Amino acid sequence: MTGQVSERSAKASAPEYQGALGSLSVNASLPDVLDEGLRGARAAERAGDLHEAARCRLAVAEACRRLGRIDEADRAWKASYRAARSAGHEGAMAWALWSGGTLARQRGAFRLAYRLLKLASEAGERGGDVVARGYSLAGLAETGRIQGDYEAVARLHEQLLTEARRRGEARHTVWALEGIAQMHRNTGRFDEALALFEEAAETAERAEDRRGWAWALRGIADVVSVRDGDVERALTLLSRAEEACREIRLRSALAYNRKMRGNVLYRAGRYAEAREPYARALAEFRAMDEPRGTALARLGLVKTDARLGRDAARTAAELAALRTSLEHIGLLHARELVDGAAAELGIERLPEPAGDASGTDDRPTLPHTGAEALRTADPESLR
Fold first, then answer.
1. With 0-12 CB in 10 A as exposed, 13-18 as middle and 19+ as buried, what is 71?
2. What would the mean pLDDT of 84-113 be, rounded to a whole number?
3. Which residues, 6 or more positions from 58, have their beta carbon under 8 angstroms from its beta carbon?
4. What SS3 state is found at 13?
């Protein structure tokens, strides 16, 4: 990783806020974005301006998604796409598809996410919207990374980081740094992960990107907790990140931040304290219909309850059910994650689901749609 983001990226922008909403800051309060987007959409629809209606509905979709209002977000991105299609505007269609693909990933529907994001990248290319295409390629990369196929997406992350630096896009630079850092952290390269998370935090702070800054602080807290055992520094960083999430009303990010607080306390052996943030995060993820967050918070809660004296047989049954849930979502490392938790708790073997051929080498793989979308992703087209 060489070089720093260009000086012309002094402030982060929010390209998903367009048209009449184009002056909104990346740090704008999401309820305010939602209100302005709805007003703008109604005015545009009354005026018969379909392109503007599509842009306003896009802002509505993104505000609802980040606020955890999933059904409203689903309706809004589809309304944005319909308006863009009626207007014959490929770029606006690309943005709507990107929003739909991002929502699908958040809901754990990875096949749909790959399909929509691939369509978004193609529409962005046809419409000459380089930013929409770049966001769509980044969405494909993030979907593969979250599923756990680092080999498939590591090079794409690096290419997108290079392009973000070249174009002076601070927000995408921060995103790429954090994605690469997360892969390093998950494969045990903690020094590399920490350096990249710290660079992401510095870049986001310079660019006044509170959202990216909060995610970077969460990453730093995770690494200093697992690598150094520095509980108090980790908790302080999480408190700062939580404040930023509350300012913008980033509901999903706040729940992940709370889950990380549980992780930090659990690693420190403070199990009774860890239980509360895990339980709250679990309730928040369930309310948002976010299956990946739900499963990970459940895992933390199961481990904590085991440490607090829960019966080993019950713990084993819950871990086995969680492994099935995580594999059903499509996380490639689900078995390794849950089996590692079982070993940590002294449980030698988890029960297999009925009809499961244990001991085989049939590991989950990326869906064909995802593998093809990642194979054909071409950041060179952003030049």
1. exposed
2. 95
3. 16, 18, 37, 76, 77, 80, 92, 95, 96, 99
4. coil
